[in-house]
Amino acid sequence: MTSATNSNTGSPVVTGFFDAGSNTVSYVLEDPHSNACAIIDSVLDIDYAAGRLDYAQADTLITFIESKALNLEWIIETHVHADHLSAAPYLQERLGGQIGIGNGIKAVQETFGKVFNEGTEFQRDGSQFDALFSDGDSYSIGTLQARVMATPGHTPACNTHIVGDAAFVGDTLFMPDGGSARADFPGGDAGQLYDSIQKILALPDDTRLFMCHDYGPNGREISWETTVKAQRESNIHVGNGVSREEFVALRTERDATLAMPKLIIPSLQVNMRAGELPTDDSGMPMLKVPLNGL
User: How far is residue 116's CA from residue 242's CA, in Å, rounded to a whole number?
Assistant: First the structure.
């Protein structure tokens, strides 16, 4: 867990919480001028083989927020995660706040509603979420203004959330030595991903960029904060003026070698429902495993 801010009065205080089981970083973003806060990309851990959920990571966020007497206003999903479950409903039940995601969720729900044979009872209009963000939308976290920038390519629902000098990029980018997100999931597009990354790299040089994942390439210590300048100069996939054509070729070749995330089956079913667990006809929480569907 680390906290960071700078001297800009419009800058949020950002604390990152690393989940080793999924290599995910969740964030608590605080308004320095009020007790308002937001959570970005929460984690609900699962022992998939045993079919058991673990709330320890989410409870860590709750303890942190309660210890500082913060008021949770937003629970933000940068996209529909394929590698971990969201703890959004669990957090909302205990702390309040609105759950928000990009309006591209409708495309994700349409695609994976078919994959998981969800039937007509599964709503594909994003209504499971409290707020659907379009490109250019804004919302408040206390006295801070957050701006939403659509950055699809990894998934159709990917957004970057910009608050003061901080930007939360989801899976669109990794740390400079980690490169970029894959673009081979249904609805993904490598060319679109490149265009989205260019939008992020057009932000001011000193903008703090916060990653959703880090895997410590080449054995380095886990890290999740960098800057636009550092990404533009040294990102191994898009730095130093890599062209769109070069990126698409690199990304396509690399994606063909990647295995599916180990938690993609439960993650998609849960996350496209805003973190709610799917149930069977009796109301019991139940996951499906579509064969040869992904």
Answer: 38
